[in-house]
Amino acid sequence: MTTTSTGAVASEQNKNPLxxxxxxxxHARFSDRLATGALYAISGSFVLLLIAMxxxxxxxxxxxxxxxxxxxxxxxxxxxxxxxIYLVVISLLVSVPLGIATGVYMSEYAAPGRTTDLxxxxxxxxxxxxxxxxxxxxxxxxxxxxxxxxxxxxGALAVSILSIPLITTTTYNALQALxxxxxxxxxxxxxxxxxxxxxxxxPACVQPIITGIMLAAGRGFGEAAALLYTAGMSTDINWNVWxxxxxxxxxxPFRPGETLSLAVWASRTEGTxxxxxxxxxxxxxxxxxxxxxxxxxxxxxxxxxxxxxxxE
Amino acid sequence: xxxxxxxxxxxxxxxSDIAIQSNITFNCRDxxxxxxxxxxxxxxxxxxxxxxxxxxxGPSGCGKSTFxxxxxxxxxxxxxxxxxxxxxxxGVDIYKEMDPLVLRRNVGMVFQQPNPFPKSxxxxxxxxxxxxxxxxxxxxxxxxxxxxxxxxxWDELKDRLKKSALGLSGGQQQRLCIARALAVEPSVxxxxxxxxxxxxxxxxxxxxxxxxxxNKYTVIMVTHNMQQAQRIADNTAFFYMxxxxxxxxxxxxxxNPEKKQTIRYVSGxxx
Lengths: 312, 271
Known about the structure:
The structure holds two protein chains of two kinds. Chain A has helices at 10-14, 23-63, 78-109, 114-127, 131-144, 152-176, 180-188, 193-204, 206-222, 260-269, 276-310. By secondary structure, chain A is mainly alpha-helical. Chain A starts with 9 loop residues before the first helix and ends with a helix. Chain B starts with a helix and ends in a 5-residue tail after the last helix. Chain B has one domain: 3-Layer(aba) Sandwich (Rossmann fold), CATH 3.40.50.300. Chain B is globular, with a radius of gyration of 19 Å. At the A-B interface, helix 7, helix 8 and helix 11 of A face helix 4, helix 5 and helix 8 of B.
């Protein structure tokens, strides 16, 4: 580094300094290459791991295929498949309005101060709560206190406790990231704050909010611990009964309902039937396809909606 | 409405003022504005002429933008902001006698950064009329075309009304924002350094546009560009440290100002 200072040798004096590369540049180039290589290696190994896991699960799922595995009976996972989707739908019906409303309130209405800080802290704590604790709380609050049995609705509420903070945070962050000009522009055109939120701010946030909903749904698809004592581990439905009040009606949300992830857990730990292993493998594969399908659909939906709002 | 309110005003003021009153849109008397304890505007007295362009000039932080925002009550949204004195629009006190939404339908605003909504060009212009409750497509179509024509951008945009406004250039976006403001049919247009984010060609086009707008609208513009004020403003008010130092017709203010601070500012000694 100091070779070009006072003690420069004669041969170096003849060289044009603009064509020379000194030690500091060589060092910087070397660390740049090293870091780039390391980062490529790390991300590459994660991609490999993901591919390995996915193909293992999918392979085993396909291997486990049998005539009855997808049936809506005790041998198949059709009922669990239906329960999973139904539970996620119910939990989104609860958590999407509440989550978006809370996010809008925090971003657009709450005055900065102690109450807002407390609310923010409460949400952060809620989002990092262990799901088994949420499940226990759900059991005490939605099952024991209400004096009922395990049911899908309680399970959906328990999952909502976990997913509301996700939707709130994504809504809040999306609103905060919008340019100030949107608000001012709308208000200067004689819109009320509410009209501004409904007609300008929320439509501008459709994509991030849908991402938040997707995360929340993923939470519902994958959740097991929070559902153990809320949605329950049994499914007793009759696809010929469509009286909502009947405990065996598929659409009755106040009946017990085992989801796919619980089925995986149950058949791996306490499965007694002959095809318990197959059930676990098939349920895992179906679950992964479901999550993938949902994630692609919501991305597509988000893009389609915002294209409709923004114009092409 | 205008004549009756003016009659009401003139009954209260000296009869010799009537002639002046009818030419006045905004009449500000002893306006003080505070952000918490900080006083941003001090005893502003200013009248603005109807269907003229009034420029507000002054160094950064002098209160010219703050003053502009009191005229459509945008400062109401700032926490801890407090206003004293009276501002009348056509004889009606905008803080005591007028709903802010009525005020903002009469006083449109264009901002420093072009701020089209992330919607189609059409939906941007139709936004204000829709808020007024206009839903008929035919009526909206007419308003959109008329507003875009007034903003001298119809020919450029008429074939792409359904495209996103965010795809336009900065200058086009700003003219779209002017069209969007005009669609509400205001009588006054406030412009807050509306050309400072634009290139010289776009700036020239907007200046040209503003010049045609004064046939129908009163324009009040904040600018940090003294040449711009000289090019297009009929009257100019010089603000300094929260006070309105001097207001006169533009030629007089720049060539024959009365106050020392004005002389120093317009001759480029500071600012």
